[in-house]
């Protein structure tokens, strides 16, 4: 049975916490599932996880009844189709900068009549044995998160929000700051103003918003919640590993 709760939680504004999977081994996914995260995201944009790894990681997470998202490398029909056919419960799609980008993401992700996704038989459809049930599940439960990572996306946010199949918007502060010509300068007032605009426009449209908090610092998580973020990725698998190694070094002192 596929998890059918995460889309409802996101759309209702409930706070959910996940993390990023960048190490392509199923034991990593199993450990993170047991830690109590609400969802996990397998990142295909910035590492070397391949299609076979992807399928095995999704299987490991779903065996623990944890929704498995995939961040695809780009807003591309083939990348999206492969991630969904591998069995992903949802997608995080980078660089959604316009209403047309959001519409493309919807069309690539959903079968007709909602979208234009090509039909193939793979793990998601039970290799053909569960096709009708999968069609129904995907039309009701597939979850699409649009990453907002450029100042153009902030300016076009209302058009992006109009695509109702987009379940939440996830800010990408590094790329956003880079699009403003000041990469990584989050304390710069120009970046702060852009983030404030993102939050205010989203709230006016009662849209769920997400953020990836990479440093393992609780105050950053609390601050994000206070600002209205409810779809929150906390850390990455390698950040947790690095944190444990640092603790071991402290023991040696």
SSE topology:
Layout: H1 6-11, E1 16-21, H2 26-34, E2 39-43, H3 51-63, E3 68-71, H4 77-85, E4 90-93, H5 99-109, H6 131-141, E5 143-148, H7 151-155, H8 157-161, E6 168-171, H9 173-179, H10 189-204, E7 208-213, H11 218-227, E8 231-236, H12 237-251
Parallel strand pairs: 1-2, 1-8, 2-3, 3-4, 4-5, 5-6, 6-7, 7-8
Write up this protein.
It is a single chain. The chain has 253 residues and is of the alpha/beta class. Helix content is 46%, strand content 16%. The chain contains twelve helices and eight strands. The protein has helices at residues 6-11, 26-34, 51-63, 77-85, 99-109, 131-141, 151-155, 157-161, 173-179, 189-204, 218-227, 237-251, and strands at 16-21, 39-43, 68-71, 90-93, 143-148, 168-171, 208-213, 231-236. Strands 1-2-3-4-5-6-7-8 form an eight-stranded parallel beta barrel, surrounded by seven helices. Strand 2 (39-43), helix 3 (51-63) and strand 3 form a beta-alpha-beta unit. Helix 2 packs parallel to helix 3 and helix 4 packs parallel to helix 5. The chain starts with 5 loop residues before the first helix and ends with a helix. The mean pLDDT is 94.
Oligomeric nature of the chains: single chain
Percent range of helical residues: 40-55%
First-last Cα distance: 49 Å
Gyration radius, rounded = 18 Å
Biggest sheet: strands, sense, closure? 8 strands, parallel, barrel
- Number of helical regions: 12
Q: Kindly name the structural category.
A: alpha/beta
Sequence of secondary-structure elements: HEHEHEHEHHEHHEHHEHEH
Low-confidence parts:
none
What is the global morphology? Answer: globular
Total number of strands: 8
Question: Mean pLDDT, rounded to whole units?
Answer: 94
Q: Strands of the biggest beta sheet: in what spatial order?
A: 1-2-3-4-5-6-7-8
Strand proportion: 15-25%
